[in-house]
Amino acid sequence: MASNFAFLKSYHGMHKLHHLSHMAEKAYRNGQFATEALLISEISGRLIRKLVKQELPNLNHPFNSEDGLTKLQTTQLLNDELIMLLTQLRTVGRHPKRIDAAFAYQIMVKLHYLLIWYVNHYQDGHEEPGHFKLHRH
């Protein structure tokens, strides 16, 4: 079955996010929801750091994804929906054993939406967000 995240291979600087997204998708298909949640948390953290580096290029000190998310929120560079989505995906890895199949599917769909938004907004992509198909074994 083709990966829902194969589109990321077409964009510069997205190789690691493609690899991690593919791994999260595979974990979901295998019923490994805790692993999927941890991977999605890692992906969103990397995406937050990418966004901060692009939106705040003069930020010279090191920052983690939590600091980055706070900076993005206080500067209002992203709308509330995107901040909420990034926050939710970043925090799913905090209690991964509590995740069931339905929630695991929801966070995968949200990750897909967020990555499509990112490539369309920052990489001149033309991806359509409605083409997500995911089935478990």
TrEMBL record:
It comes from the Bacteria. This is DUF4145 domain-containing protein. It comes from Limosilactobacillus allomucosae.
